[in-house]
Write a structure and sequence with these properties.
- By secondary structure, the protein is mainly α.
- It has one domain: Serine Threonine Protein Phosphatase 5, Tetratricopeptide repeat (Alpha Horseshoe).
- Helix content is 44%, strand content 6%.
- Strands 1-4 form a two-stranded parallel ribbon. A two-stranded antiparallel sheet has the order 2-5.
- β9 and β10 form a beta hairpin.
- α6 packs antiparallel against α7, α9 runs antiparallel to α10 and α10 crosses α13.
- The chain is globular and about 60 Å long.
- The chain starts with a helix and ends in a 9-residue tail after the last helix.
Amino acid sequence: MKKYTYIFIIIGMLLTSCEDFLSEKPSLGLVVPTNLDDFEALLSNDQQIFNQTPAIGEVASADFNIPFQHWQSLRLEWERQAYIWAEDVNQNGELPDWSVPFQQIFYANVVLDGLGTIEITQDQNDRAKQLEGIALFFRAFAYHQLLELFTPYTRFDGEDSEFGLPIRMNSLVTPNPNRASVAEVKSLIKADLEKAIELLPLNEPLKTRPSISAAKALLMRVYFMEGDYSSALELGQQLHNEGLTLIDYTQLPVTTSNPFGIFNQEVIFHSQLMLYQFYNSPLTFIDQNLLALYNDNDARKALFFINRGGNGLNFKAFHTGRATWFGGIGTNEVLLTYIECLVRAEDLTLASELLNSFLEFRIKDFEEITFSSQEEALEVILLERRKELSFRGLRWMDLKRLNFEGYQINLQRDFGESIYSLTPNSLAYVFPIPPQEIDRSSMIQNPR
């Protein structure tokens, strides 16, 4: 325990001293992990390194509104800029939604490099493989978050883009690499997850650590978001056959501040969105267009939202079980993704069967629905996905995916005299790389 504490303290020193993580890695001269206990301690740090998900896409996704005076008072400049889709989104050249995932990539690489250099006995082999799988999962998770925020949307069968990400395959402190293509970054993510599936345990009691199911679910998300619905469907079928447990929302107490509880049965992998000021502010109001989607018999309406005496409803219930927003992977996401893939594959019978089973856990006095066409089925499942998966870092990904497919979703911020708009497939769907990274490298900035 003393060794774990020591390593966590050193990690804290490294993180707080690192201003520009991709360009200036922390010095490993302070401490060098040299054995499996050290590597496990590093991967178990879910407070300072891992299990933190970028939230800037949630700020920009238009699921909530902030009065102009409150917007002006937001402490973080990048919150204000992202909210109105400004050309520059950073604070003094920095942006944690970029730097934190690269911190995670670096420390995952520390473990992967270390496992390749130490002597591992036969008794340690299984443990070493699991640690390798965890590190690969964390690296893939971080790269996918970066991909969705800082690169343009590309379909799996479409044209590639040169505006990918710098690929870091080891923990060496080297000059900044150029940006790989989007396709190259996706290939790395998929390869990491496919390998992780071979190495991770089937069951993992700590939900801050990935299991085989978590790696499959993340790989499913990667395929799904790039429009490869066939590959996502295969993984969805596997995960469904292995079991997807749901909470019956209709039986939860609505008066409880957070009825879901930490590490609840719908959590496959726990991560939380980075802490931004707007999270718990009573002046952050749910968008009226989103609220209008919930009928009075929808249990989610009373569970998700609360009136704190302001001019609208606030979001109250978090799948983290804490006062932070969920940014991990849940069974509800996997199931709804699977159902959408079934609809796109024109298996409307199974899709309606699974959706009805799902909605029985969400709608009071539920009456079964049937689909008369694929178009109708897709409209219904997209609506349910919209209502179920808000405020967990997925909406920004869905907006890019659906707009690319022609859904023409326009976003708007109305400050009275000033109105800001985000049009479908706008360049503003790709956040700019922090200027400090551009200045210290040969990378080309995202057009904005």
